[in-house]
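Data deposition worksheet. Section B asks for the primary sequence of the deposited chain exactly as it was used as input, without tags or linkers unless they were present during the calculation. Section C holds the resulting structure in token form. Section D is free text for depositor observations; keep each observation to a single sentence. Incomplete worksheets are returned to the depositor.
Section A, Depositor: J.P.
Section B:
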Amino acid sequence: MKKIDTEFSLQTVPQTSRNSFAKTMAVMLGFTFFSASMLAGGQLGLNLTFSQFLLVILLGNLALCLYTGTLAHIAAKMGLSTHLLAKYSFGEKGSYLPSFLLGFTQVGWFGVGVAMFAVPIAKEMGWNSYLLIFIFGMVITLASLYGMKSLVILSFIAVPLIAILGSYSAIEAIETMGGLRALFDYEPKTSLTISAALTICIGSFISGGTLTADFARFAKTSRSAVAATSTAFFLGNSLMFLFGAVGAMVYGLSDISEVLFLQGLTIPAILVLALNIWTTNDNALYASGLGFANITKISKKFWVFVNGIIGTVLAMWMYTNFVGFLNLLSAAIPSIGAIIIADYFFVKHRNYTRFEEATFVPINWIALLAWAIGVALAQFAPGITPLNALVGTAVVYTGLMKLPVTKAALRFEKNN
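Section C:
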């Protein structure tokens, strides 16, 4: 008897297996609760006034809401992961590029996240950091084998705890500073332009946001998918940035765990940091498994386990040597989401054939060209880097796909 894939790694999620709004919201909030966002918030806090900071996170997270909400709409309508949606625009084998880039970077960030937990905790408690990395990495890996069910359960537990403990810490910090008036009177010693600050805010999670479809495909309706995703990215990312910024403005520390240690709250610090990283790392392993399953046609569960082992073993090395490279790779990812959005709305006009009935070209070279141009725009065009990638890629892809010669070539390739 053939075993049923309850995660629907290579097929449409049926309506009978879709989740409620609350479950979708919990998973997406857990995804956005990430320590790296607090570090980015701390960077802004050290270089902006509090009023400027609020403006930046409002505009930046609204942009993230629009991007991830649009991907969530497509995912819920089609019931497909990012990797299967990519087949419509990149082609059957062309989709392997997005899958590899997304899968590889998520394994890298999983390793970095494990070390981000273990290193400060081991230092504070006098424990062995390598042993802590192994234990934490394997616990997350084994839990992630249970797929969407474990993501939902963990998120329901972790999200309220992180929000409550983080808010308590932030309120304590503000009172130490002298209240809200003192916070609004804060003057940074260095400054950032609003454009540079928006690049940090949007860029902090646009890579992860590109994977929205992997989780939003389980929503019962596109309306609930969009509402849950947009709310989660705005509320979750804003809270992480706020916790980081307040810590930086008051104590010069952007990581909420370090602030909690300073406030004498050792156990809450360990709990918050563990849950904060766990809720993002399990999503990272889940998404990486989907990506490599698309390439190899081997089960997602197998790749979740393998990727968890690799990420755990290489965690310390990734933490000390790999973050810059991962940031570079992450800059190449928003263009993937831009092509999926442009193809669905502007090229195919929301008229996708059901996945099980669709036939795809082997490789859509136009998508690969548009992706390469989008990556170049992200690196070299002036302005807000992530938005350059999104808008530039979408315009280039749509324009090239509308050319008569492109349409004729794709028809020929599809029929032969």
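Section D:
The first helix runs from residue 21 to 32.
The radius of gyration is 21 Å.
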